[in-house]
Write a structure and sequence with these properties.
Structural class: mainly alpha
Length: 98
């Protein structure tokens, strides 16, 4: 699995979990609600600037994907580079096997 595949999965999962935390913590402890809003700071700012909810959350999910991609690129092994795309990779395997 490529690094950006992992980043998309982790970014969407992070967005879903943090959104669920905001919804669940609305009526609970105030500090927990503030902490969950800090995780959604980009979307909160975009909504405050009067952007609709769905595009705001989509942009925030894209930010999570970007951050996860950076994190995984730094800490993943070198053979999972995002720039490693080879169309002829399958042909070279066939010629080397005979």
């Amino acid at each position: 699995m490529r690094t950006w595949h992992k980043a998309v999965i982790l970014g969407v999962t992070t967005e879903c979990v943090t959104t669920a935390l905001v919804v669940l913590s609305r009526e609970s402890i105030a500090t927990f609600f503030i902490l969950s809003l800090v995780l959604h700071l980009p979307a909160v700012v975009l909504i405050w600037l009067e952007l609709p909810l769905v595009p705001s959350l989509t942009m925030e999910a894209a930010l999570w994907v970007f951050l996860w991609n950076l994190f995984l690129s730094v800490f993943s092994p070198g053979d999972e580079e995002l720039t490693w795309l080879s169309i002829g990779g399958h042909q070279s395997e066939r010629t080397s096997n005979g």
